[in-house]
Structures are given as C-alpha cells and as structure tokens.
Amino acid sequence: MSLSIRNQIPGTVVSVTPGEVMATVKVRLDGGQEITAAITLEAVKELGLAAGSSVRTLIKATEVALATGAIEGLSIRNRIPGTITEVTTGGAMAGVKVTVAGGELTAAITKDAVTDLGLAAGSSVIALIKSTEISLASV
Predict the structure, then answer these.
(1) How far apart are CA 93 and CA 54, in angstroms?
(2) Residues 95, 107: contact at Cβ < 8 Å?
C-alpha cells in the first residue's frame, strides 16, 4: 500500500500502556530516539502490538512543528533533534526537510515561520510532534 504521508520512520515497540479507550505506545526509532504514539486500544489489538513488534511510524508533514532550541513547559512529548537539509518555499507555505538519526522528517509550515525563525539548510532544529498525531503501521 502506498501512502501520501511523507514521514515514515521504522522502529520497534518498547512498551504498550493500555487505558480505557486509548493506549500509549513507546517506539524506539531505528536511529535510537524514543517517541510516543497515542492510538486506540482497538488499533493496538488489531495490529497485534507488543514489546518487540516492528512498526512504521507515520506522521503527516502538517503535524510536525519546528523549534530552534529547547523548550520548557510544553506538553509535547516527542522532541526529535535534527538538521535542516532543504527548505522549499511557496507563496504561503514551506516544506522543510530535517535529517534526524535514522531518517528524515518533512515539516509543512508557513513561509512566515521560516522567515521569522531564520530557517535554512544547516540549521539545527527540534521537531515537535504530539503523540496523538503519530499513527503506527505493523511491518
């Protein structure tokens, strides 16, 4: 199956913490970073997810925010450091490619944000992704 989601990074499930309807799934990406996905308990069961399961994390580019430094007091758990490799701007929006350990992320952000933050190839950034915006696919 082909998907339009640009960000597809392989990893391994570290743990699954079930709740009433949702579960948090910690995944160690192939680059070594750990991220958390919040998905339905039904999806966990349908995918057969457990510690050791191979998965692919799926993150829409529009759900990736970028920061130019560490941020304190933020509820977003997933903070992945990387380096910008390419910035492509259009009339209102921009696509920013970020190399991270074990892969690449693309962020779709406004052209104004690129300008305001001074983003350019070679800039260090932190990709911020809410756990509810990460989908998982079994491999």
Answers:
(1) 34
(2) yes
What is the Cα–Cα distance from 25 to 18, expressed in whole angstroms? Answer: 8
Asked if 98 and 61 count as a contact pair (C-beta separation under 8 A), the reply is: no
Identify the DSSP state of 41.
Answer: H
Instruction: Kindly state the tokens that stand for 39.
Output: 């998905």
- What's the rounded mean pLDDT across residues 79-104? 96
Structural contact between residues 134 and 76, judged by C-beta atoms closer than 8 angstroms:
no
Cβ contact 26:34 at 8 Å: yes
Which amino acid is located at 135 in the chain? S
- What average pLDDT does the segment 45-71 reach? 97
Per-residue CA distances from 14 to 2, 31, 51, 92 (Å): 26, 14, 5, 39
Confidence class for position 1, pLDDT limits 50, 70, 90: confident
What is the enclosing helix (H) or strand (E) of 93?
strand 93-100
Please state, in angstroms and rounded to a whole number, the distance separating the CA atoms of residues 111 and 89. 6
Q: Which of 56, 28, 20 is nearest to 135 (CA)?
A: 56
d(CA 64, CA 82): 13
